[in-house]
Amino acid sequence: MISEKVPIKDAFNLKEVALAGWVENYRDLKKIKFIILRDGSGTLQVTLPKSKVSEEVFSVEPSQESYIYVKGTMVDNKEARGGKELIPSEIKILSAAESPLPIDISGKIETDLSKRMDWRFIDIRNPKTNSIFRLQSKIINILSRFCERNNFVRINTSKLVGVPTEGGTEYFEVSYFDRKAYLAQSPQFYKELALSGGLEKVYEIGNVYRAELHHTVRHLCEYDSFDVEWITDSLNDLMDFEEKMLKNLFEQIKDESAIKKFSVSLDFPNEIPRIKFEDAKKIVEEMGVQTEDGDLTHAGEKALCEWAKREHNSDFVFLTHFPFKHKVFYAKKDGKDSLSFDLLYKGMEITTGGLREENFEKRKAQMIEKGLNPDTFDHLRFFKYGIPPHGGFAIGIERLTMNILNLENIREASLTPRDPERLTP
Question: Is residue 373 a contact partner of residue 205, using CB atoms and an 8 Å limit?
Answer without folding.
Answer: no
